[in-house]
Write the structure tokens for this entry.
Amino acid sequence: MSNSSSKDIIKPGLPRGLRDLNNLELKLLKNIISKISKVYESYGFEELSTPAFEFSDALGKFLPDQDRPNAGVFSFQDDDEKWLSLRYDLTAPLARYVGENYDKITKPYKRFQVGSVWRNEKPGPGRFREFLQLDADIVGSDNYLADSELIMLACDCMRTLGLDKNNYSIRVSNRKLLDSILELIANNEQIDDARRLIILRAIDKLDRVGVSGVERLLSNGRKDESGDFTKGAELSKASISKILDFLSIDNEDRKKFISQAGSIVNKTVAGQEALKELSEIDLLLAKLDYKEEVLFDSSIVRGLEYYTGTIFEANLQFDSSNDNKFPVIGSIGGGGRYDRLISRFRKDQIGATGFSIGVSRLATILQMAEFQLGEPSNGPVLILKMDTEFDYSYYQIAKELRDEGILAEVYVGSSGMKAQMKYADKKNSPVVIIEGTDEREKGIVTIKNLIKGKEISTSIDSRESWIKNSDIQFEVDRDKLVSKISKLLNSSN
Amino acid sequence: MSNSSSKDIIKPGLPRGLRDLNNLELKLLKNIISKISKVYESYGFEELSTPAFEFSDALGKFLPDQDRPNAGVFSFQDDDEKWLSLRYDLTAPLARYVGENYDKITKPYKRFQVGSVWRNEKPGPGRFREFLQLDADIVGSDNYLADSELIMLACDCMRTLGLDKNNYSIRVSNRKLLDSILELIANNEQIDDARRLIILRAIDKLDRVGVSGVERLLSNGRKDESGDFTKGAELSKASISKILDFLSIDNEDRKKFISQAGSIVNKTVAGQEALKELSEIDLLLAKLDYKEEVLFDSSIVRGLEYYTGTIFEANLQFDSSNDNKFPVIGSIGGGGRYDRLISRFRKDQIGATGFSIGVSRLATILQMAEFQLGEPSNGPVLILKMDTEFDYSYYQIAKELRDEGILAEVYVGSSGMKAQMKYADKKNSPVVIIEGTDEREKGIVTIKNLIKGKEISTSIDSRESWIKNSDIQFEVDRDKLVSKISKLLNSSN
């Protein structure tokens, strides 16, 4: 393996579900991360970074996506023979961090974290084994304000990206609503852990399989389009009807939702608590201009393992930007209250609530929707490498441009002018600068305006007039070069 | 493992050599990364991101730090039973990327990448198993300009951090100089791979063990302070003397270095090539104001496996900021030409040269040297939570402040005023805002200026006068609140 003189050629390639990200993809991701991080910070969240891997037993295995029962983590042993796992989310490391530093941290502890997470599971279109998350959590508060704040934060994150209220919604529910429904049907039948899982999974599938699909999943099971059969919960008609009533609650109007949900769940303590918590959130948000974008929705389930109270999801929806496309729709994150997770490390129970954005997924959806985030930017000005003797002079020009905040590079290859011009084109250079022997003798440089060149080459068809056009190629005194380029670039924005 | 209701309490903690990074540590790292990335971009480097792990055989095992012969990588198998490894540097993934995308990329390909790398080796003080690197590489150029550009880039990275020329140096050599010396002594003795390794390691240790230490490592071996014995190369006196002559070359003056080195190595082709390449670099840099900060140094070795031409290291040096300290010294990165690495994936040889900054190490050294990078910043303004009925009003205040770019948060816990004031203090809040029932009736809010409070509490000793001081606590009309806070925060900067 370490023998670099071996003549064996290795076929280069990546494992499935992993990918490289280029310049433009990274610019979008970094733009999203920067804007959202600023919102998190503006709310008083402090950034934390934890290692990519930790002790496997400290991370546990609380994979939040309940529709991936076989989801796994990447694990390995180090020289100490301890089992380590790559983090599969940012919440498990937070729980460990809080457990370890509880006495030191300022409570309520508001932290945000951005980082890659890894899942050892089957990748598919748009589903990767490495992706970025951006989380905000509040630990050490049982107050409804903490949950409300995260919902407002979710809205503000969408707003800071420039999204319109028609393009996103935050759909909120409460895990105690589901507990209440399960409690109500448990009067008629035995609900063990396995059956509970099947029921919650069925409810979660409402938006994909519709009411009739959920009905089948709650009774004898359902065959999907690919022919795969999903086993049903085999509930009684009465129980199924109760769940379908619950799922038909009006989710367009929060007040109506509370009233309709009340008529179903107010016989249970869990139901009463859920309604009280939802009412508090509604009241606060209504007064603070978070209105039609925040909906209550009885089909929200979220992760099966650890949520205990408020739960919510952030969804995007764009109309198709051309006729051949379906609307672009997708969930880009969510969260909720998880009061039991940190108690793995402590005897007492610590209230916690969080919000996680799937940044990679968000970027993919924005790209699919052709949503522009920020201005596209120029590549670097290219200074052609003409005579080796004057290499220093090309670097001098580059330096003067950089000092003005202009990206600039000298061609460092060994090819001729034609290849250099092609390089400028590929790197999206706005301008090429030529300082050959003739130019040096005259104390000038030649400038080629590639932006203008592209404009004109698409508007006039004679190659001759292209070349003659003095807007495209012209000379300028060497000492006026930088100010001329500055002007050119400013006018092209 | 997935049973969250288990009563077993897990002891929270991290594997050795891994660490969490808090808000302040991250601010420093992000500041460094942002400044250096901007320099890389300004030179026309484009960002690339590769996955955290890849096929083990694609990454190979070219650990660059030659003094860690037992260095290892973290490896594991996925569900496909393929062996995967966490990246141990950013160059191996680049080689794979170039091998995979050679026909698509713009050549010369100038890419930069920032990311964590992982080493499965024994951690120690300041030596972690996860750390950040920030690399710039030029692939597809054999031109001396590519090497020269990276050396200038290294200088500019140090300059952009605000470092003085006295605080850093870039020490340059050429692998062919070492090849030449090895060729010269091979006239007298057998130099196999193992012996070559011992000799190069001995040379690399000059700054730690001194001339006499190197002499011992080249002859019978050396016992260090801890009593550990390092086997020597067992060279003849003539060979040792040749190497020591080489190491005594003047490294204060680049022209003198070339002349003195010439007298030793100009009998070999490798030596002649090295001198030509160093001369070209010297000539260009001298004309471009990269003078005393760039030194030639015959003791530079760098990674053993793959460098083929120019090699260099970036070093920092700070005087002790108080009398009890030694000067803070350290290498924070380096690089060089590695023309053979990409040929693992291709039949032809692709010229490549790169520069890697150890960002984590750089941050540690700057912290040790108490070097300030940017202004320390305030925490968020805290709006106290007084009456639940008026929670919306506290969020309204927070929103108005945020809209002016001021960090602001509402206390989301359930504790009383005393705990809330303590919270403000811990979060470094500049200002606390109180809107109780009295204030609401009067249409005012109370402001506590915590910055002023801290100043005065250290300058006057009467607690009474602290409280009375109208600069510290005062009332303001609700509608003038935001402009008042803006003024306060601007004047405190």
Q: What stands out?
A: Chain A has two domains: 23-368, 381-492.
